[in-house]
Amino acid sequence: PKAFVKKYMDSQGLTEEEVCGPFTALWYTPFDTGKTDKVKAVMLDMGWIPTEWNSKKMQFQVWQYRKRLEKMSYANFINNECSDEEREFFTTCVDAFVNKHFRNKSKGYMRAVLYGMGFDMKRVPTFDQIKKKLLLSQYWITSPQITEDSFDSVPEDAGRAMQLLKQRMVWSHRRSLIAGLIDLVRPDGKVAGEANPCATP
Hints:
By secondary structure, the protein is mainly alpha-helical. The protein is built from 8 helices and 2 strands. The protein has helices at residues 3-12, 36-45, 66-70, 74-80, 84-102, 107-117, 127-135, 160-183, and strands spanning 53-57, 139-144. α5 (84-102) packs across α7. The termini are far apart. The model has no long low-confidence stretch (mean pLDDT 86).
């Protein structure tokens, strides 16, 4: 509690459990279930393991150094097998990924990222192993995708909040699909099946 509030509490015999909000140093942000990124973050913290991830292609060719890196540790590769330019580029990319996904994150979040990277989690990998895995991958994961099969990873005893989030995500996903299909319905009540021959097959 703030100092002037503490004086009032002492005079009235109030406990800290009875005072909250603007009278304390703590503030609460209302949780908006319509913000997908926020919901994903909370669900990751609570143990959700996504089955699919968005990814981005990295700006280097793995095949150029794969054989060298497979035979040694990441630290040995960076310190002894790279030019100064390569070392700076690799360490900048890898450290940015590690800081984003492994610094000050919950165990649930980090566990989900490690699964997304392809670790089987029988043994917790070291940072050297994580960084080596990154350099051996052309595509790096960015954010989880919402798929209904991924909600199988949510245990039944995960708690009421987690179960409600799970159900809301499933129904929101289905509603979006149905709403999109309804917008495509022609006057004859059918949806056209189309193909773009100039796009990826």
